[in-house]
Write a structure and sequence with these properties.
Blueprint lengths: L12 E2 L5 E3 L6 E6 L5 H9 L9 E3 L5 E3 L5 E3 L13 H4 E6 L13 H18 L6 E3 H4 L13 H6 L17 H8 L7 H12 L10 H8 L4
Parallel strand pairs: 1-5, 3-7, 3-8, 4-7
Antiparallel strand pairs: 2-6, 4-5
């Protein structure tokens, strides 16, 4: 008898993808994506397409339904080439959650409240069962800043932080002097990636109203809060 798949109790239904293999490293990260496609049906079809060679563990629909595609114990193919805290096999180290949203190619529509509540519940469930900390709940653009923009500047990270499902901005005064690259690397960003790309990804996460890649005064102030 085959072992029952490991999944969340929040799952509404399964749409099984064959695009996975065995993990090679311990699981310690949750990565949030947007689907960036016309609708959920198109996205699910692609995530099951063997030729596309992409998948995710979970898909969260606009109405809040949670679909599972890959057993949590398996390595879904959602992240591609990336880096976070010296880990380059991001797929092995993470659970991937695709959030149905047209993304930048389709006008970057707002995320419905019901959908975000479902994302928060799923993330908290995964954090609790796998011992994952808030600092390890990140976006696709964080691990691949030179090529990915999702889940985008409209994603409500602050709302997740208030619910204990993502890291909150540190309080207090920041460091007066600090090295920008060192701070970004300490947060997890790839030290070999273009600095402007890492800054842009940082802004998407913490300063979504000013996603420019430029080190303006507000970006420096925000970075200083993470300097040790």
């Amino acid at each position: 008898m085959s072992e029952a798949p490991l999944s969340s109790s929040l799952v509404s239904r399964w749409v099984r993808s064959a695009n996975f293999n065995d993990r090679r490293t311990p699981l310690d990260t949750i990565i949030l994506h947007y689907t960036g496609m016309e609708n959920a049906e198109v996205a699910l079809e692609r995530l099951c397409d063997r030729e596309a060679q992409v998948s995710a563990h979970y898909v969260v629909l606009e109405a809040g339904d949670v679909i599972q595609m890959v057993d949590e114990r398996k390595r879904a193919w959602h992240a591609g080439l990336g880096y976070w805290h010296a880990e380059r096999d991001i797929n092995s180290a993470s659970i991937g959650i695709e959030i149905v949203n047209g993304g930048h190619d389709f006008g970057l529509p707002p995320y419905p409240d019901t959908q975000i509540e479902a994302v928060i519940a799923l993330v908290r469930d995964l954090m609790g069962r796998h011992g994952i900390g808030v600092e390890r709940v990140i976006g696709h653009s964080d691990i691949a800043p030179e090529r990915k923009d999702d889940p985008g500047e409209h994603f409500p990270w602050e709302r997740l932080a208030r619910a204990g499902a993502a890291r909150a901005l540190p309080k207090g005064r920041g460091a007066e002097t600090f090295d920008v690259r060192s701070v970004l690397t300490s947060l997890g960003y790839d030290p070999q990636a273009k600095l402007s790309a890492c800054v842009k990804a940082f802004q998407r996460r913490w300063l979504p109203e000013r996603v420019s890649g430029e080190l303006d005064a507000e970006t420096r102030r925000c970075l200083s809060l993470f300097a040790h």
